[in-house]
Design a protein that fits this description.
This protein is mainly alpha-helical and 272 residues long. The protein folds into two domains: 172 residues, no CATH class; 93 residues, no CATH class. The chain contains nine helices and five strands, in the order ααααααβαβααβββ. A three-stranded antiparallel beta sheet has the order 2-1-3. A two-stranded antiparallel ribbon has the order 4-5. A hairpin with a 2-residue loop joins strand 4 and strand 5. Helix 3 packs antiparallel against helix 4. It is elongated and about 70 Å long.
């Protein structure tokens, strides 16, 4: 097993600990209890939001705590596997690592606000139609539950793995390593690509050479979540930037290409 594969296995083990379903089910039960007792009322969405926020916040706070518990573990994995790059450990005090932690917290806060708004609209519509608690539950099963839990899980996994990659990037920086190779499971690059393949990943895998400088990686855009140096192809990406201390950079020349992926721009590097 290569080091890159070992790193990926360790990160997969860490993110498997994350889960939003249990906390969400507690919130859901509290919400339906309030609805059954006639305690949810409101003439507009803003009033409903104010009533639902205190019910949802414990679930969101629980998930955020679980996410942040993984940060020290990702540092341990990186410092152990990449000790040959430098004996200096990456820490959570390093600027880029600290920045991504703050940004991740902001992302989670945005998810929480948007989710409360989405749930509130469903509740308000249910109230306006004088639906029973049982009908509200059916409404949630049809249009709310899966979306809320799935995106929470996707975001949690993405930002924990992004944190791990940023720790790896900092370990490389401390060791003076400036080149990274895009590694991970092969993707379909011809015909109809897998829905699990991000456009950035597809374009990078079309090139035989997938080693880039940190500066060039910073110019790339995946059209979903940034920076590419931390989040690679986007949400739930299975790839990694692996530090390459042996790449000399001789004859290294890359051009940046921007393509449209639906309504989003994706920018990637191609060796020339």
């Amino acid at each position: 097993m290569t080091r890159a594969e070992q790193y990926r296995d360790e990160m997969d083990r860490l993110v498997e600990r994350l889960g939003f379903r249990e906390a969400y089910d507690v919130f859901r039960a509290r919400l339906f209890d309030q609805a059954s007792r006639g305690l949810l009322t409101g003439e507009n969405i803003r009033e409903i939001v104010r009533q639902i926020e205190p019910l949802f916040e414990p679930a969101a706070a629980h998930q955020l705590r679980e996410i942040e518990k993984q940060y020290d573990d990702t540092l341990t994995v990186v410092n152990g596997l990449y000790r040959d790059l430098t004996s200096v450990d990456a820490t959570r005090d390093l600027s880029r690592v600290a920045t991504i932690e703050r940004t991740n917290r902001t992302r989670w806060g945005r998810y929480s606000r948007e989710t409360v708004g989405f749930i509130s609209k469903q509740v308000r519509e249910s109230l306006s139609k004088n639906e029973t608690s049982k009908q509200l539950a059916a409404r949630f099963e049809q249009s709310v539950d899966g979306k809320v839990v799935k995106f929470a899980d996707t975001l949690a996994r993405t930002i924990v793995k992004g944190h791990g990659q940023e720790c790896k990037n900092e370990k490389a920086r401390l060791g003076g390593v400036d080149f990274f190779t895009y590694v991970g499971p092969p993707v379909v690059t011809t015909g109809i690509p897998s829905t699990l393949s991000h456009r950035l990943c597809i374009e990078l895998y079309r090139s035989r050479k997938r080693t880039f400088s940190a500066g060039d990686i910073d110019q790339m855009i995946n059209g979903q979540i940034k920076p590419v140096r931390a989040f690679k192809g986007g949400y739930r990406c299975r790839h990694d930037w692996e530090p390459d201390p042996f790449y000399s950079g001789k004859d290294y020349k890359v051009t940046m290409i921007t393509v449209m992926d639906g309504k989003r721009e994706v920018t990637f590097g191609r060796h020339v």
